[in-house]
Structures are given as structure tokens and as C-alpha cells.
Amino acid sequence: MSMKVPRLLYTAAQSRAVDREAIEVHGLPGPLLMARAARAAFAFLLARQPEITATQKPLHVLCGPGNNGGDGLLLAMLATARGIPTRVFLVDGAPRSNDGKTAMARAKSAGVAIEDYVPGALVEGGLIVDGMLGTGISGEVRPGYGAAIEEVNALSVPVLALDVPSGIDSDTGAVCGAAVNATWTMSFITPKRGLYTGMGAEHAGDCSCDDLEVPEAAYAVAGEAVEALDLGSELQNLPRLRTTAHKGHFGRCLVIGGDYGMGGAVVLAAEAALRSGAGLVRVATRGAHIAALLARRPETMVTAIDHRNALMPMLDWADAVVIGPGLGGEVWGEQIIHAALDCDKPLLLDADALNLLGRQGPRSLPPGSVITPHPGEAAGLLASEQALDASAVQNDRFGVASQLAELWGATVVLKGNGSLVQGHRRCALCLDGNPGMASGGMGDVLSGVVGALLAQGLPAEQAAALGVVLHARAGDAAVGDASPRSLLASDLMAPIGVLLQ
């Protein structure tokens, strides 16, 4: 049974535990699982490139010495039997595991062309199967693999990676010196969590997973895995719309920000909060922005604030507070965030609020708060603990999200390709969204969405999870037939309303 959209995502250690359970407890021998993997991958390849059997395009299979290479050898045997001109290149010698040795013997007896890899062996015009390195990689790839990876990436041909693109850490998504740029990645038994976030998602291409008919009971040994966010499941946490409802039933959301010259950020956050179901939305901002905000969204209430004392009655009024969009890093922003941090309402902190927070160092946030950093902001929030930059955060997104949640005592949304939601009881990953969402104002919209959900009474982890997947799906819906390059943050407003059905 193949899974197009995974429910749970696993580490390499968890995957090996499930594999052992399948073999030792459920009676599925290793060679049988390897044969099933080869059949699944070959069927996948034929479905995406059906012309390969008629055009006689060459198929080159790069195999390492582990079981990943064994999968490749058996796939090459299937392709050879179909008359596809196939060559296997051994990148680091013959297979060393017993199952790999069995696969090698079967491929040889079937007449598969097998030779040692030398640079320059690959040609344009065909297909490549990457079976070099699996989930066991540690440290940077060795030079022999690096040369093969470089040659694969230099060719303009489709590439199918078996289980994991060689050179990608399947736990973190980090590139281990060099990594194959796959067109598709087919994982086996378990979807690997590193393929869905950071650089792992960039290199893995279109991901799928085949469970190789491993019984569901075998997965229990893996323990807790990362959840893949599902909009339908998360929507079930929304409070029901009662026929007797009035605006007071759906929460009061206060949006704070918009220093001089940055009023658009609070406009986007406020409108997103309204579209996401908040009963009342009030904006505390500089007076210069009031006219524009009311012209854009007359449903908001707007108050000009010049100092923290003016903010106190509004903090008392609110059920949840969004602070950060356009807040700035000057004295005004510092005064405002100090006042917000002293209230006992759930906070959504984003953008400039996170930069100001990072300057102060770790402190207790109000219960039920959410922080939504991008990688650079995440590095700043951890600066008191360790020196990191954005690239270091990207290399260990799961670890960084967990550190932030523990250090700040809040639910964390680590934004980026494969946004993570890390709470006290769950870690979840968003599979939706598109590159067009890497544009100004998208974070402000997310802040408004999550703030509205907090105001409606959702616990922080539920509000963050629903907000992230709703925001991402709205971005996908907003693209439609247009190019993602043209996507604007304000384009998400209408799809948010549709998706909340």
C-alpha cells in the first residue's frame, strides 16, 4: 500500500526499529522487503516515465554497499528484464550486508551489467536511480560519493532517489557536504522526517512512501513520531458556531504594532484575524496609520498609542494579543513590548517583537503564548545559550524548535520550508505551502490567523497547528493558475474564509 500524504514522519532510528520489528516479529525476511522495495520503486518509475520501455533510454543505477544499494540492484534486475538498457555503478564496492550480497547475486545471474563507478560514466538523455547512501549517513560524504553526487547533479536527467537522496541527513534535512538533487524520492516502510523540511525538502523533490505491506502493529515500536499537519483534523478543534452566537462568543484579539512607516503589517494581521473568526479585533498603532487601516478594514477598532500607559486598558480588554508586526526596534517598540509581556493574556509574538525579546534574554512568557520565528529570529532567541546563525538553525530545525520551546516556555512555530510546530506534547510539520509565500507580509497574516484562534479559546498548540496549516493551504489556494512569483500576502484573505468551512 503506497501513501501519498504521510500521517507520521520518522527518524532513522525509529525506521530501523520498525524494520527490525517487521523482520523479527512479523516474519517478513529482509530479502522479501528488499524485493518489494525494488518492485515499488520500479513501478513508480514506469508510472512517471512510461516511455522508458519504448525509447530505450539508458537507466543508470548508482549503488552503495548497504541495503539501499541492494534495492537498486534488484530494481536494475527488473528493468533489465523489461529490455531497458540498464547499467549498475558500484560507488563504494560490492554490497557488504547479507541481504545486499543476495541482491547482487540475483542481479548478476539475471545478466545485469554491473561495474565500478568512475567519474564521467554517466550520460545525458536517460534516467538515474540513486541508491548510494541511505539513512545511516553521519558526517560529510566521502570524496567518492561526492564525485558521483556532483556528476548526477550536473546532468539534466530525472533522478529517483531510493529512501533518501544521498547526502541528506534523514533526521534533520541537512546537507552533509553534498547531496543529490532528486526529481522524486520514494521512501520505504516509513516517511523520513528530514525530507519534508529545510534543505531536505529542497533536494527530495516529489516525495512518496511505500509501506511494503508492513503490518501497522510493527510501527508501535517506533514510539512518538512527528505529525504531518492535516487541515481537516485541525479544523475539528474550532468551537462550533451556535445559532445564538454573538461577537462576544468568538474572542477579542488585540493587534499591536506599526511604528512609523510600517503600518501595512498591522493591517494584514488585523484583517487575517477577522477572516479567521475573531469576534472583535482592535489595533493599537501609531496615529498616522489609522485612516489607512480603517479605509482598508472598517471592521477593526483602532487606537493611537504613543506610550505604554495608553496600552493598559486594551490589554485588559483582550482575550489574546498579537504583537510584533511592524513594531520596530526603537524606544516605542521597547516600551510597548514590556507592557505586553507583563500582562497575563496569551501572546502571539512575531517579527520585531522576537528581535526585542532576544535582546532581553530568556524570561517567562504568559501561559498559552506562541512565538513564530524564522531561522534568523530563532538564532537570536537562542543567542544567550549558543552562537548560531540562520544556516545553523536550518541544519537542525527539529532540535532548534525543541530548544526554543523549552527555553521560552512557549509553543514554537519555526517558519520556513516545512514549518514546524513544537509544543509541550507534540511536534508537527506542515507539508503545505509554496515558494511564493516567501514574500513580505506573509508572517503578518500568519500572526493574525493564530492570534484569532487564541482569542477564540484554542490552546496554544492547537491554535499554532491550525493556524500554520490553514495559512499554508490558503497560500496554495491563492496561487491558482497564477505564478507563485506574483503571490501577495493579501491574496490569502479570501481563501482563508473558504478553507474555514
List keywords for this structure.
501 residues; Rossmann fold; UDP-N-acetylmuramoyl-L-alanine:D-glutamate ligase; 2 domains; eight-stranded mixed β-sheet; 19 strands
Distance from first to last alpha carbon: 31 Å
* Total helical elements: 19
| Top CATH class of the largest domain | Alpha Beta
Could you name the CATH topology of the largest domain?
UDP-N-acetylmuramoyl-L-alanine:D-glutamate ligase
Q: Which structural class is indicated by helix and strand composition? A: alpha/beta
- Major sheet details: 11 strands, mixed
What does this structure look like?
With 501 residues, this protein is α/β, with parallel strands linked by helices. The protein has two domains: 2-225, YjeF N-terminal domain (Rossmann fold, 3-Layer(aba) Sandwich); 231-237 and 249-476 and 487-499, UDP-N-acetylmuramoyl-L-alanine:D-glutamate ligase, CATH 3.40.1190.20. Helix content is 40%, strand content 15%. The chain has helices at 12-24, 30-48, 52-55, 67-81, 98-109, 143-154, 198-204, 231-235, 263-275, 290-296, 312-317, 331-341, 352-360, 375-381, 390-394, 397-408, 442-455, 460-479, 493-499, and strands at residues 2-3, 8-9, 59-63, 86-90, 113-116, 127-131, 159-162, 184-188, 206-210, 226-228, 252-256, 280-285, 301-304, 320-323, 347-349, 370-371, 411-414, 420-422, 427-429. Helix 9 (263-275) packs across helix 17 (442-455) and helix 17 packs across helix 18. It is elongated, with a radius of gyration of 26 Å.
